[in-house]
Amino acid sequence: QGAIAFRDVHFSYDPERPILKGISFDVPAGKTVAIVGPSGAGKSTISRLLYRFYDVQKGAITIDGQDIREVTQKSLRAAIGMVPQDTVLFNDTIAYNIRYGRPSATEEEVHAAAEVAQIGSFIESLPHGYETMVGERGLKLSGGEKQRVAIARTILKAPPILILDEATSALDTTTEHEIQAALDVVSKNRTTLVIAHRLSTVINADEIIVLRDGGIAERGTHADLLAQD
Ligand code: ADP
Ligand code: ADP
Asked: Is 185 helix (H, G, I), strand (E, B) or coil?
């Protein structure tokens, strides 16, 4: 479920400077495809197009064969879960922040998602370090802990499609490995688009696509791409 196809997708923010010059690729249902490339190559633009922050200017994006322009914004956004580079949390309890993934979830479901993401012990705490108007003291979560909140939120939402947009790139190496392991669990058997700037962080992807100068410069598994260099 959630098979994604990009077909001859063109996009530019400024007509003078095309960002994507006709790219085509598939993310088969349940598989993980990684987009890598230098800063400014258009990697995040791909995730914004999939979420319809912007529409393609030529070509099409489909999910399970249906053009995303024919899907309601609400159901498109319900189908896609996103873990960004730096998760911004509401100044409310961790539980509130997790529940945001699926407001209809029960208390038990929120707790279960927090346990899987290994933040079960402090979900009634506030995420920021400062005192609130009612005198409650926040925890000041680390970057890794904030990503765990984003992961718990995604577990709760259980979307068919997952976008990981540089989800570990703001973390130190040790934390990066821990969060990567948690993300591997969430993305297993889920259609997943990973945005990354280094090949070394996407070793397990089913396919890696190297974006350069508005087109796909190389593609293959991690082993294929290493063999070519
Ligand atoms: P990447 O994720 O590969 O670093 P982006 O997709 O964020 O690249 O951006 C691709 C290019 O488009 C960059 O040169 C960036 O400066 C430009 N860009 C991104 N967003 C906008 C915008 N809203 N308006 C104009 N230019 C933009
Ligand atoms: P909506 O009113 O859009 O259906 P929900 O809060 O019910 O909003 O669902 C939001 C997202 O969570 C949707 O992607 C939906 O498919 C998913 N979802 C709903 N119920 C469950 C559930 N019991 N387990 C996992 N995901 C669910």
From this structure: helix
pLDDT tens over the chain, length 229 residues = 899 999 999 999 999 999 999 999 999 999 999 999 999 999 999 999 999 999 999 999 999 999 999 999 999 999 999 999 989 999 889 999 999 999 999 999 999 999 999 999 989 888 876 655 556 667 788 899 999 999 999 999 999 999 999 999 889 999 999 999 999 999 999 999 999 988 888 988 999 999 999 999 999 999 999 887 6
Q: Yes or no: say if 153 and 101 are a contact pair by the CB < 8 Å rule.
A: yes
Q: ipTM of this predicted complex? A: 0.68
Ligand sitting nearest the alpha carbon of 109: 2
Distance 102 CA to ligand 2 centre (A): 6
Nearest CA to ligand 2 atom 8: 102
CA of 75, closest atom in ligand 2: 3
In angstroms, rounded to a whole number, what is the distance separating the alpha carbons of residues 154 and 165?
13
Rounded distance from Cα 158 to ligand 2 centre (Å): 7
